[in-house]
Design a protein that fits this description.
Elements lengths: L32 H4 L38 H22 L17 H4 L21 H5 L2 H35 L39 H11 L2 H11 L2 H6 L3 H7 L10 H11 L11 E5 L6 E5 L29 E2 L6 E2 L1 H17 L36 H8 L4 H6 L12 H12 L2 H7 L13 H12 L12 H18 L7 H21 L9 H11 L2 H12 L11 H19 L9 H9 L2 H6 L15
Antiparallel strand pairs: 1-2, 3-4
Length: 641
Amino acid sequence: MSGDSKRLSIFRRGASRTPGTDGDANPADAAPPAYNAVPDQPPGIDSAPANPEPVDLTAAFANLHLANLPGDPTVETALAHLKLLFAIQWMKEDVGFTDGLWDLWDARAGPVDPLVKGRPGKDAKPGEKSEKVAWQPDPKDKLRDKNLETLSKIREKRWALFVARAASRYETWWKTLERVTTARPMRTGDMHTRNSEMYADFPTRTTEAFWVSEDMLPPLDVLMVWHTHMLNPRAFLEDSMLAGLRIFWASGMPWGLVNKAIDTDFNYTVSPECKARWTHQTGLAWDNADDPLVKTVKCPTCSTMLQIPWTTCGLPADYAGTELPVLTGNGYGDSDLQYPCWRCGTTIRKEYLSVAKFVNDTKALLGPENRPMPGTVLATNGTPSQPVPSVVIGQVPLIPHAFPNRLLLSGCNSIRSQITALTSTRAQLAPTMDTVRKEIEKVLEDKTSVRTIESVPPYRARFALPAESRIAVRKMMSRYWENFSLFALDLCGAVMRQGVFVEKMCKLDWLHSPSARETATRLLVKYHRFMDIMKANPNQVAVPTLDVDLAWHTHQLSPSAYYRYTVGKMARFVDHDDKIDQDTLSRQFEWTSKVYQDLYGEVYSECTCWYCEAIRSSHINSVGKVFGLSKQEKSAFPPPN
């Protein structure tokens, strides 16, 4: 086992001491037993030789041959993806253990046993037992230590702030890409133009290359947020279409450049020219922590530029009080943003910023930009729809999922003025997205208004709004609930959710396994089988195992290739939902396991620790019998998330 994998418990109460096991204190956070259980040493097998041959645990990923072009997942890209996940996890640890970052000091947790306070050794050689790594007590014992729990929360808070700042930096990079690529944002007219490269042909017209040289790479924290954005395929496509970033969307993760920037110790290193270019184009520091301690925000009401602190949770290093740290906070990166505008008195809250986003998007629709509302771009199958010729000469054909645009443009029930006035000085106090919802519902409940919006002729007595149009209204609204970012989803929250998967991948540590390439080969086969199950059962939710999920994620990081594959296979752009409720997840995982075993005669969820992977890669049935392995083991393990 790699010595680096000992570093995986930085925000938790205990460290893993055995390859493939989870030392988390909270069972709910643990990886499934199927991935963590390590069999005891089987009887009758000779012990290892006293002086075994040294094994290069970086052999599988030290010399990967990768291009910077999109494509279907391969063994090489799967390993490069794992390498990126390790770099992200190490960055998380670096941030969590930076005492005093944003004035969040470990000392505020109170006295903590030095044996458990320190950071596991980062620089231990693979397989080396570093004396720097202290013995770790049982997690149950450490849970009783309130101070240690507080220390863990302080470190988690540092990471949460880092991620919030990273998401903001990604947004700045995104705007920079729009500028330097001279992208033309999408217009509603593009939706009615057949074979438009800005709409109907956006996902398939992908001949140009975006990634040319290493100095185009962003910092690792921004790369992490982009990685998460692409793992929400439909949201990433929609955001790219609205911004006109077709070449950027099509190119995906430049595996050759990223792999070269990450060494075998998972340090992300680029040239001085790369750092200089980043700062010149974005105006941001290369290192996240070197950016300002305040976020510049325009007051939605009076347009005054405000300097809002990222957090109000910090205290000076010499703080001598005994009060436990309050980690909620009222800063821009805190969970309870509250900041009064010094000019107009408006209190800036996240709910109000969501309303401001909706108002600004509505103005972009009504104004000369004529940009469609988020959530109205893709059809229910996740693809842009080709316009259907109208049966009435001269009439613009109606696209069902573009109904919210028509509603806001109509002016029915004074909807335009009602919405655009929400952030004015004459608006009611503290409007929220619930205020917006009520205004839209007033129009939908008026049958005359709906008939007017849809140009229904008077002689047509009966009319019902299509289901796809109603779904589009909900999709549009979903872009704003608890989200005031530039994008279709809150990327800060998405990165935090994705962090669970990243940690599990690092704990399994397939990357350092002697059977890493064989493992990658098998998971690719399993992934394509998984997609076949999805194709054959379009009305069911198929739930992946961790190995399938790795291949699936790797594919999504080449958006144009993933689009071509899923649309060609299933006539829909398959999305990736990481917010399915646990009951549904467990039920559908059981269903997926049964279907997989019935189709392929193999267990769907099986142990993927080094030991079991090595046995599988040997392809020697007799060894399997000695160790009691069977393809017919019951797959009674829970889903990966």
